[in-house]
């Protein structure tokens, strides 16, 4: 099994897209996406991007109204539902599709494009 793709550090172009409101910011909380992302990091999210298998995305939690989570698209598709997966499988408190099942494309807020800090 290959290592998950690393999310790149925000480029000047990505920061410009954020200033032009083509990206939104999201703060990472908790260790579920380690080693790719750590708690306290801030990422930029493209809400217009078509989700692809392997992308790190921000999604709405299907069982906790208003809660946004950050996970990797670990399987599925737009037609059959996406499997959201934590990169840190050893984290016992992480919730992903193993606990709540697949989510629809409408639950995907956007694709993480880069890390700001």
Stretches where pLDDT falls below 50 for ≥5 residues?
none
For the largest beta-sheet, the strand count, sense and barrel status come to: 6 strands, antiparallel
Strand order within the widest beta sheet: 1-2-6-3-4-5
Q: Look at the structure and give the mean pLDDT.
A: 90
Query: What is the CATH first-level class name?
Result: Mainly Beta
What is the total domain count? 1
SSE string: HEEEEEHE
How many helices does DSSP assign? 2
Which oligomeric state applies? single chain
The CATH architecture can be given as: Ribbon
Distance between the termini: 28 Å
- Beta-strand share of residues: 25-35%
What is the helix fraction of residues, given as a range?
10-25%
Shape: globular
**Structural category:** mainly beta
- Which homologous superfamily in CATH is the superfamily? Umud Fragment, subunit A
What fold name stands as the CATH topology?
Answer: Umud Fragment, subunit A
The whole-angstrom Rg is 13 Å
Number of strands: 6
Molecular structure report:
This protein is mainly beta. It has a single domain (12-115), classed as Umud Fragment, subunit A. The protein is 10% helix and 32% strand. It has helices spanning 12-19, 97-100; strands spanning 24-27, 42-46, 56-60, 68-77, 81-85, 108-115. It has a six-stranded antiparallel β-sheet with strand order 1-2-6-3-4-5, covered by helices on one side. The model has no long low-confidence stretch (mean pLDDT 90).
């Amino acid at each position: 099994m290959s290592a998950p793709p690393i999310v790149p550090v925000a480029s000047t172009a990505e920061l410009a897209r954020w200033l032009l409101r083509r990206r939104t910011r999201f703060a990472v909380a908790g260790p579920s996406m380690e080693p790719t992302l750590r708690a306290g990091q801030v990422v930029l999210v493209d809400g217009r991007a078509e989700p692809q298998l392997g992308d790190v995305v921000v999604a709405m939690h299907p069982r906790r109204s208003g809660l946004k989570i950050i996970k990797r698209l670990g399987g599925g598709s737009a037609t059959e539902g996406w499997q959201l997966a934590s990169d840190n499988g050893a984290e016992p408190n992480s919730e992903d599709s193993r606990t709540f099942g697949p989510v629809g494309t409408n639950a995907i807020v956007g694709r993480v494009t880069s890390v700001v800090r």
